[in-house]
Every structure is written in C-alpha cells, then in structure tokens.
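EI: anyone free to look at a 253-residue chain?
SC: sure, send it
EI:
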Amino acid sequence: MNSVLNVRDLTVTIDQKVLIENVSFNINEGEAVLLSGANGIGKSTLLKAIMRLETDGKDITGQIISHKFGDVLSLTNEELQKFRSQTAYIQQRDDYAEMGNVQVRDIISENGEAFSGKRLSFSEVNELIDEWIPRRSDNSRVFDAKSRPAKFSGGEQRLLSVLSVIASRYNSELIIIDEPLNNLDFVNARNISNLINKVLKKNPKAAMLMISHCRIFPFITREIRLSSTGIEEVPEPYVCHSCFGIHDEEGFY
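SC: here you go
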C-alpha cells in the first residue's frame, strides 16, 4: 500500500512547554485509523500540526510528509492553501453563532468550491443533502440550503460541519476528523457514522485519521495511541461497540 501521510519525529512546543514529542506514524491508502489517547494528551494539537493551523508561538520540528505535497512544514503559503483545500479536515469545534444571515448553501458551497473550483446552487446543495443525510420520519430535511446555521442546535451544527467537508470532498486523498460526534444525539451520531462509511465506500483508497472517544465506527481498520512519549500501535483489533445499535455487514446502521 502507498503511504498517504508520513509523520516523522514530530515535536510541538510552546514557551518551552512540550505539547507532543517524538511522534512518528504512517497512514496508508485504504486505512481508516483511530487516534486514541488520554484527554489533554495532545491529539487535537497533532491534527492541527498536520494541517499547520494555530502555529503562532509554537515551535514545530520533524516532518509531515504528504504523498502529493511533500513536507507540509516546508510548504509556501500558496502550497499550504492548496494542501488544505485538497484535504477533508473537520475540526473539533463548530462556530456558527456569529454568522447571522449566512445560509447552509454558503457553507457547503464554499467547501466544495475550495476543493473543485465549482460553486453549488441552492438546488445542488439540497440534492447533496438528500444524498447524504436521511430525511426525518415526516419526510422533512434536518436542514436545507436556505437554513441559517446560527440558529442551529449544537448537534445540527456538528452534522453540518461534517457534511459540508466530507460530502463536498468525498474523493480527497486524506480525511482528518476531530471528534465527529460532539453534541450529537443517537440518530445523528448514527447518521455521521453512516456518512463517513459511505465516503470510504465511494473512495476506497482514501486515508483517514480520526479522533473519537465513542467507539461506534465499524469501518476503523487500525488504532494508534498517543502518549507523552509518542505514538504506539494498538495490537488488539478495534472493537466496535453496539451502544447505538447493530450495524449491517457493510458497516451501516
């Protein structure tokens, strides 16, 4: 298998405080990797370092080798923006409260345009929503292209964040997700799992790295654990919990 992401001896410090140290691992095409570890150990810091986000005041050493772009830490600003636009990255926090009159169409279309150069119409966004998110029992959508995220519940915001990145960039080579189930209820947590699984079925060569404390994802192929001394492979097979029901043989709920 080809390596999509190769992290070598990555160390992140701020004001001489070590946030993560000597982190090395590979993710190959076709792998869906769970990144586990204790709370506060630096998992989100690691994902942000891979994307070169929130770097002010931080000293980042080592290498983050992208199959397509080379060492992320050495990219020019233009090259970095291209890397980010071609990576399906979902950060941990959703922040739509101050967006006022911004609509769902704006968010989804902006993500799609960054990846493919195409801006989606209202009808195209609604078609995309229908493709990826099941309707409610009364046949209504959870949200549509004209909905305003500033008025959404926390769970609806999270669902939009995952949908806007994953569905518009489902054929990305690299998918990075930080806690996809934050604020989600039972139904939408299963929707998220199914959505990610559908992406991996459509794009079987994608490499995915995901943080989650909830172990309901049938598609995980491998687990690595972050500690104060670096990364270790978890030798035991990933076990999918059944707290949200039993998935079918294709990994869908």
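EI: The first helix runs from residue 43 to 51.
SC: 👍
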